[in-house]
Amino acid sequence: MQNEYFTFGEIIRKSTEFLLNKGVSSAKCDSEWIVSHLVKTSRMELYLNFDDLVPQEKISEIRNMIVQRGRRIPLQHILESVQFCDLRLKCDGRALIPRPETERLVEIIIESVGETFNGKILDLGSGTGAIVLALCNQLKEARGLGMDKSSEAISLSRENLCLLGLSARVSFQKFDWMLEDYKQEKVDLLISNPPYLSVEEWKSADPEVNKHDPKDALVSAEGGLAHLRKLLDLSKNALKKDGQIFLEVGMGQAEEVMEMMKDTFYDIENRKDFCGVRRYVFARFC
User: Has this prediction a pTM greater than 0.85?
Assistant: First the structure.
């Protein structure tokens, strides 16, 4: 391709065709993201300049990234970042890639607690730090603690913390909440997007998920319910009276999780995600 010339329209079309042949369902969108990332412009600007030539020095870089995506390496790992709730977070194989479904969880939490919330937030299984960082970025008086059993995830979340300048109000600590007792101060808000896939669901997931996301961040025993069950038990020591819990759960799990909550929580509710799945369960601690 060194001596070839392509317009933005041509290179997006060729890249899309290549990725579709590799089984990438988001081929056109991913091609646009890769091209816009490398030429440092918006996706909208690409179409405003559809017939302009791609800078010659960028063609081989675009091809290399498209080939990587064709190998089913996640787009976020290729770009080394992810957009989440108006934040740009560093993203790589050390932690689960934050999903759009989890952005909706953040929205639900802010709708519930209000922008004047000034309490303490605990994020269990914090991964990249996306949830607690997004919340504390929008809730200017809130304080946050993210905890994860993975040293690699903690290192990534601390890098994101430094990038966002929230170190005065947010911290991250290594903690295996499936094995260790919670001994920190009680909090006003406990949030978690825990592992909730069964082994069978994980095996049938796309290669981007089961080959590149950490398995421990996805899979839970007891058909995907073990971590959720443990979270509810741990919350008795972690939440203040009338404190709130917000959980992201798997398909078909909401009713069972709500049933588990009945003895220790009140005002138990659930919400659907954009696909109609009952994805979010939240309540107040008695």
Answer: yes
Write the DSSP assignment of 101-136 as a string of letters: HHHHHHHHHHHHH-TT--SEEEEES-TTSHHHHHHH
**Residue 143: CB partners within 8 Å, gap ≥ 6?**
119, 120, 121, 136, 169, 170
Query: Which stretch of DSSP H or E encloses residue 164?
Result: helix 151-164
Dist CA 213 CA 150 (whole Å): 13
* Helix, strand, coil distribution of the chain in percent, nearest 5: 45, 20, 35
> Could you read off the pLDDT of 56-112 as tens digits, one per residue?
889 999 999 999 999 999 999 999 999 999 999 999 999 999 999 999 999 999 999
For residue 84, list its beta bridge partners.
87
Q: Residues 121, 130: contact at Cβ < 8 Å?
A: no
- Note whether 279 and 248 are within 8 A (CB): yes
* Fold that domain 81-285 belongs to in CATH: Rossmann fold (3.40.50)
Give the three-state DSSP class for 247.
strand
Q: Which of 148, 106, 144 is nearest to 128 (CA)?
A: 148
- Measured between alpha carbons, how far is 14 from 258 in angstroms, rounded to an integer? 48
**Alpha carbon distance 41, 30 (integer Å):** 14
